[in-house]
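tool_log.txt
---
The assistant was asked to compare two proteins side by side. It first ran the structure predictor on the initial sequence, then on the second. Raw inputs and outputs are pasted verbatim so the downstream comparison step can read them without reformatting.
(1)
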Amino acid sequence: MPSALPSSRTRWWSLAILGLTQLMVVLDGTIVAIALPAAQADLGMADGQRQWVVTAYAVSFSALLLLGGRIADFWGRKRAFMVGMVGFGVASAWGGLAQSGGELIAARGLQGVFAALLAPSALAMVSVLFPSGRDRNVAFAVFGIIAGTGAAFGFLLGGALTQYADWRWCLLVNLVFVVAGLIGGKVLLVESKAEGDTRYDIVGTVIVALSLGALIYGFARAEHGWDEPETWGFLAVGAGLMGVFVWWQSRTSHPLLPLRVVRDRVRGGAFLLQAMVGVVMVGAMLYLTFHFQIVLGMSPLMAGFGNVAMTVVIMATAPISTTLFTTFGPRVVLTVGPLLAAAGLFFLSGITAEGSYWSEVLPGLVVMGLGFSLIFVPVQNLALSGVDAHDAGVASAMANASMHVGGSIAVAVFTALYSSAMADALAQGTERLPALAGAYGDVLFAAAWAMILGAATSFVLFRGSKPEVPESVDAVATAR
């Protein structure tokens, strides 16, 4: 850590730069999603290839986040941030100029590699710059709101760029963020790094990357049928390798993910809840966007606006949600939040080809916004509560990885679910648009059950009430 914290003014300007980075990383998970129909047509991609434009980013990001967090801790968080910015810009330019589906997928994968360096270094620097007290709560509230609204902002920005410019600008726009981040980072950010043991766990990195790759590919293969031996073979290999990874982390002297980071009940609960959030924000919202454009016939821009209702609700109710959190504690708030989100998803699962946005979509998005508002503000702070400075980067990486692993698996599973439902409906003589609406509804119904699981996780693991809230979040209401 730096020997002394920067001035208050410098710290808040630094937060602005780090928040901008967080926005870029989060919205890049969704900004391309709304451009997929246009990109698919332009590059001649099949439906099965289309999902990998989203999945390639999420897989490489989540597979390398833990290593990225350790690099940030050991090599230097500012240095990792700057290198990540440059690499992310290069990958974005490549994707924006791609001439084939394979090239676009490769560029998205490279984006994920450098995002895995950027995201944990940014969040770790926030943790270091704001070590405790009211300022820390405000800083994490900012990051929580960005995480909660960035995905929807990605849909809106992607819609505007696709409609009025070209789908390629959904990638090229990152260069604006990159230039701002490099200039601001050079001028404002201060270096910090962990002391002591700084050896990298390369073996652990390879194991966890192979494990996640096998799991996600296995779920993606389920599109061809759950009875395929290849599907279950990859799933079994992925699960087995994950077990090997946990065993290795308990044996090696320099683990990629020190088990002390995830063994804490509150912190572990926060990681699991973030995975469930990723199922919805990365997986389910992708198919709701398809419904807007393909079934309801919305333009890309109007499809982007279609998601804004949830964002507005999250931002409007965030101060109230923070007050409720400090009053009632994590168990109540982080159980009620997922239940509200699930209620909104259950409502959305009833979408039809003949229905309207106003009657079949908007009410569900409003309820979802209320639910996610209760989740986003506290969950990142809880995920980093009580973490030693030596582990700030890897804990930040785990917080990000949880959401993106959940989202990566969800995209693969939901694609299989959608394909199966669509095939069954068409075989029964259902017309194409009603069949699509029904298949998308099945995806949203499954996502609702993921949020029910998130509520159960919170209820079981956050067993205390207000006394269990970490001291660092206890004063957040007064900062509002």
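(2)
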Amino acid sequence: MIDRTKAALASGGKIGAVLWYQGESDTVKYEDAYSYGARLKKLINDLRVDLNLPHLLFIQVGLASGERPYIKIVRKAQKEIRLPNVKYVDALGLKLESDHLHLTTQSQVQLGIMLADSYLDSGLNGIC
């Protein structure tokens, strides 16, 4: 990802934000859930350093899937990330497919709108 992003930036590309929707697998084991916040902070900081984009906007999606035992720990860690230019969009309440993991198509569209609004409201669009 880093190599491809650097290549795109070198050829005139721009990056406006990282959209992050991950963490369901971290809700299965306590150790993973407990360390999620620290690992996410490290990822954000490492991405910014590796790409030389210290103000890179990072928009994360609060998990919506609720059948794993430690989802509350991961969601709490997501909400408590306190780094500059990190935004939180909550997917909780969006409708899930029958697998209780993936969003329905309608919910994916709704989440896309929420992410776009968060990006546009950031005031950072286009700076990177």
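---
observation on (2): The chain has one domain: 2-121. Residues 30-50 form the longest helix (21 residues).
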